């Protein structure tokens, strides 16, 4: 009889160094929030439900087994805050140990090798989403996709921990599909290879710089440093705007705070920060950010728009809470 835990074992990426990769099982990035985890779980449960998935009794049973033995345990772990925090610490520990050992990372899947050339948040999330869409459509390939997701997670976790040798290989890809073979070569010339893939055609190779790169050494010349900071700040503002469009508030907040480290006088950054706070119902913090934006640029349109809305909402609340005269001895039903 086959041991079910062994049958569902993933030996790639994080799964190679841990008993399992819960985020890969659910097809999620390792920084997914509780609401994303819950939504993704119910989507998978719908796919694997025997009444939806089952074309035969055997397939229905198999789908139920995947849900009970693989998906639900991952969900139950990540939905407990303490367990999720401990698991995040485990991922960082795995990255730290690999870096300490000086082990070279050579992902087996095309999509993970591709991410390794530009391991920023946007590319990582796109790659995870592309695999997650296919992950449980065929149970014959579910573990293969989960392994590739786990490799993506390992590449990302290592990059966030400061692992640098990702950029050295030049990877030549000829219109691959997920899971296909890949050819790699190392070149000492200045020749810039053109890399093409369905998932990353427009942004994988010249992406906005993500904030994890802020740990890299600064340019020595003051003029170049100032120009470099300005360019990086603009790229990260652009990335933050993309996150805002996708309603990824936590990621947008991370990028905007990194921008303020580079350029604290950016009125647009302060205004976008205020917008993110508004979307998270943190109106007091939003108001401070909008006011700061207007100090730097009195004509900052976003700050003018939303600060006016906040002030109108505050006036409306104050009016609604103001005791009204009349009635039998006022609101308390009695007088002094």
Description of the structure:
- There is one protein chain.
- The protein is mainly alpha-helical.
- It has two domains: 4-185, Helix Hairpins (Orthogonal Bundle); 236-319, Serine Threonine Protein Phosphatase 5, Tetratricopeptide repeat (Alpha Horseshoe).
- Helices cover 58% and strands 2% of the residues.
- It contains 14 helices and two strands.
- It has helices at 4-7, 22-26, 34-48, 50-53, 57-78, 81-101, 110-117, 121-132, 142-160, 222-245, 249-262, 267-279, 283-296, 301-321, and strands at residues 170-172, 183-185.
- It has a two-stranded antiparallel sheet.
- Helix 10 packs parallel to helix 12 (267-279).
- It is globular, with a radius of gyration of 25 Å.
- It starts with a helix and ends in a 15-residue tail after the last helix.
- Mean pLDDT is 75; it is low at 1-6, 167-223 and 327-336.
